[in-house]
């Protein structure tokens, strides 16, 4: 198809001018005759794909290929024609609208698009029309808005509608193109229908054996609405069975469930009447003029007669019996009767498991319960048994009742100590000091147990060491009778006691308390209760003991070596049993005690004047007779120690009988007697002192051992 022709002023028609075409579509969509300049299209053009093309043309000399004119640009525009029909890009549509909506209620707006040029002619001008769905719905021809066309469209009458909408271009004129879509419209439910019972009278049969709490029947009201608009509740509004029956609502099935609140008795009442109402729970006040949204019906209940099991006079029984009662003692009686008009005889029996101990039996005719064994309340204070009753003419019908039997207490258990007591008395205890508190227990009941009385056995001699005090609160205190105890003298004491209860008649028992003697701190805390604790009180560790042992071994080795060396020396020229030229007389006394003072006369070491008449040689056997110590002390008390030593030296130098070798003599002197008396312990063993050494315990842990030693001496003297 020819589009246009190009012509140059230089073209004289002799074919010397050549036309060249470049640009969009040149050579493919558009071709040019290089001699005449005619431009042709090779295929149809679609405006919806490309609206215009930009091309360049130039005339050149065919022989020299030189341009004769500057290059020219031109645009080819594609003119639109109506070749595209309107289209609904979002269809088909699904939409809902509430039922009973007003006429003209907007449902949905549909839109169709046309690919033609909207600026050229009416090719893209679309109008809407409804092809299907009248007279229920309408469509706006310009906007495409779909509206309801009728009043009070009822979902219960018709729920679904299919509406076909057409869109046509060319403003709907003849020859225009069109497209259509389907709109599926569903009416949604509103609560515009009240519930209705299918019948105004109902009848229900219920046997008198129906269990309380069980469902005995169902009833249902119909509602044309759906979902929450059909929800309802049921209630009993009046009738003579209001207190006997109750009704509830099943939310899934929307049924009323009738239940039994109290047991039925055909012999007392054979029928009941109930007025039942069903009402919607979710109301729409726009439609209240269609109400009321509730309905009522009458239900007659017929009670059926059945053969019932015996009925006990009480729902449960509680009986009492004393423990230790004789076998066959009557505990109590149960009573059951046939509730039917036949009034059959009733038989009784006890339900026992195979492994149960049978402590009771029951008279089958009278229902009297008796003991079959001797009962012990302390072993089992309560029994629960189940008594069954059946009719003579129908043994399969049973009824059961629980019987609780309380075993009453008698005073058959004496009191005893609450536990094994570990009682400790401190060595430094004082008279009347409480060293422990004890309590008692009784297996019997409270009335036959406390209050407890604690006392010592009157048939035994009085205990000189401990006594017992009843605190009158079911406890007793152990007190000391004397001052100070010693583990070395006696480490364990025994105290027999008696305990009686408050029962009638009263029972008593005897027990023996064991009391250990222990060393304690000043605050009463127990330090040790073992006699060997004296050795460990020094606080020596294992390492220290090993070191001491090694020192002793080394000293023994040195002594053995020294003796060996002495024996290896040359024997002296003069050997005599009385050879005392190197005799060293040494007195080493640390204030030991009476044993040391009896071994030898220590008077010479106390005072030189006491030895004035003992002028015998220390290196030869003396033959002089010793004078009594108290006489020499009274006559030679004033001799000075220096004068005494000088005198002894002169006697040794001038004595012709002394051998020609040195003789070493040692004298120890403590000085003149003090006015306050001697502080030495040498005479302490021979005197009886009443001094109290308790103050040593206040000097600290360094004097703890010394305080214990003097405490034991004082305790032994007291004993």
From TrEMBL:
Its main location: membrane. InterPro entries: Cadherin, Cadherin-like_dom, Cadherin-like_sf, Cadherin_CS, Cadherin_Y-type_LIR, Catenin-bd_sf. It comes from the Eukaryota. Keywords: Calcium, Cell adhesion, Cell membrane, Cleavage on pair of basic residues, Glycoprotein, Membrane, Metal-binding, Repeat, Signal, Transmembrane, Transmembrane helix. It is a single-pass type I membrane protein. One of its GO terms (biological process) is homophilic cell adhesion via plasma membrane adhesion molecules. It is found in: Cell membrane. Cadherins are calcium-dependent cell adhesion proteins. This is Cadherin 18. It comes from Propithecus coquereli. The gene is CDH18.
